[in-house]
Design goal:
This protein is of the alpha/beta class. It is 38% helix and 20% strand. The relative contact order is 0.09.
Length: 476
């Protein structure tokens, strides 16, 4: 991050604004809303600034800026639009160790003004580090539409309940449950316009928070890698989870969406290296759920496509543990789409078969003649280690050696690589290009449909790049 997102208290602190035009007026308005004691310095003054001065809301010095103006200031804003003056203000601020903002000039600025959504006492701030302020304003507008105007009143009511909640609820966990339920309930009421009885509602929530909690497990598909491909339901569970038991093959940014204080347990499996076997994973799920925790079993792709989700579901149900399955975009669909390969095509094939290439470190047993006779696109999971044997089985069953194949490494991620060739040299294709797991194999005529088409930049990957300099911050 180029900027540290933070909220600074400037109530009753002296702030200097150099310039008194329309731009300076907008900055002064924001400072006044935060309770600052504002002084403005400028030889020419806009009517709006003059009105503020006449109303006694600011101190106005109608003259040129001089270095002594910065004395005892908490913050300085330069809004003159004159580069030489902006440079002088910045230099004097640095000399006195006072933070300076130069409007529309991030290079000279120590801090920047974000686009804000005001639901006092909650403030949501959006910044692109000065790189794209118009985009920041558009994002602010989108957030503003999601937050009801009555949200501030809801927060002030919660503030009055804080002392009572601390007195009545002994543990941090009980208080967290209370506030989670409190805001969920009021969010619904606020959006629907319902009026809930305040005392009755809080009393019920206090009792719920103190009651013994019933654990729950969600088997959640994280998708093929790109965090933007998470489902809304998956995102909700990640943000509610007390414990997240996750695989290795999840996107590097997916856990960023989880609740910050959630316990994270890595049970990832790499070829030949299993940190936890399936029996141990099952026991972990049951243990944490038995403690009354909300558990997310986070899997790459979809839990029910070569993810052992079915085994975990049966195990948990046998113990009468509440369990839910949240499907995800499976790797074959996500990787093929990212690579521009249609798994079915009217001119090539009308079927697709998903199969695993490896079982217990060996080539998975398949009815090879039946697979070939079906003439379906083959999407092979975990096929790198057994590619040579897979090739021979398919050719022996009747697939021609020149059948098009694609190998997709790190599909949907910024590091995605797609190499294409023919089935007859599949293992050489993998070796010569130093392909590493995770990778999907796509075998079928549809591969040619992608190679003959114009490839375009992946919009999901572009959104990741766009999000990098964007800072969202909220305070309540």
């Amino acid at each position: 991050m180029r900027y540290l997102p933070m909220f600074r208290k400037i109530h009753r602190q002296r702030c200097l604004v150099v310039g008194a035009g329309d731009v300076a007026f907008r900055k002064v308005t924001m400072l006044l809303r935060a309770g600052a004691d504002v002084t403005m310095v400028a030889p020419r003054v806009s009517p709006a600034v003059r009105d503020l001065s006449d109303a006694g809301k600011i101190t106005l010095n109608q003259r040129r800026f001089v270095p002594t103006d910065i004395s005892d200031q908490a913050l300085i804003v330069s809004a003159t639009g004159i580069h030489a003056i902006d440079e002088l203000v910045t230099a004097e601020g640095k000399r006195a160790s006072i933070a300076v903002n130069v409007v529309d000039n991030p290079t000279l600025s120590d801090f920047i003004f974000p686009a804000i959504v005001d639901r006092d006492p909650m403030i949501v701030a959006v910044s692109t580090g000065g790189a794209a302020p118009v985009l920041a304003r558009e994002i602010r507008s989108a957030i503003e539409a999601l937050l009801p105007t009555s949200l501030g009143a809801l927060i002030r009511k919660a503030e009055k309940l804080r002392a009572t909640a601390k007195r009545r609820l002994g543990s941090v966990e009980e208080r967290r449950r209370f506030w989670t339920q409190y805001f969920q309930g009021w969010r619904t009421a606020t959006l629907t316009g319902d009026k809930l009885p305040r005392h009755q509602d809080s009393a019920i929530l206090f009792e719920n928070a103190k009651a013994k909690q019933i654990g729950h497990v969600a088997l959640v598909g994280a998708g093929p890698g790109d965090a933007d491909l998470l489902t809304l339901r998956a995102l909700q569970h990640l943000q509610d989870a007390d414990v997240i038991i996750h695989d290795r093959l999840i996107g590097p940014d997916v856990l960023d969406y989880a609740r910050r204080d959630a316990e994270r347990i890595d049970v990832g499996k790499a070829p030949g290296k299993h940190s936890h076997n399936q029996t141990e994973i099952n026991a972990l799920l049951a243990h944490h759920a038995s403690l009354g925790k909300q558990v997310v079993r986070l899997k790459g792709g979809d839990p029910f496509i070569f993810g052992r989700g079915g085994e975990e579901l049966e195990y948990l149900q046998a113990l009468n543990i509440s369990v839910e399955v949240v499907p995800g975009i499976t790797a074959s669909l996500g990787c093929a789409a990212s690579a521009g390969i249609p798994l079915t095509h009217r001119d090539a094939t009308q079927a697709v078969t998903l199969l695993t290439g490896t079982s217990a470190n060996e080539l998975a047993a398949q009815d090879w003649p039946a697979l070939v006779a079906n003439k379906a696109t083959l999407a092979v999971y975990m096929g790198l280690a057994t590619a040579d044997r897979l090739r021979e089985e398919l050719i022996s069953a009747g697939i021609h050696r020149d059948m098009p194949v694609a190998v997709i490494e790190n599909g949907t991620l910024a590091t995605e690589r797609v190499v294409t060739g023919q089935l007859g040299n599949l293992d050489a294709l993998i070796k010569d290009n130093a392909i590493r797991s995770p990778a999907m194999l796509i075998i079928g005529e549809v591969v040619e449909k992608a190679t003959s088409a114009k490839r375009v930049a992946n919009p999901t990957r572009n959104s990741n790049q766009l999000r990098e300099p964007l800072i969202l911050a909220a305070v309540s």
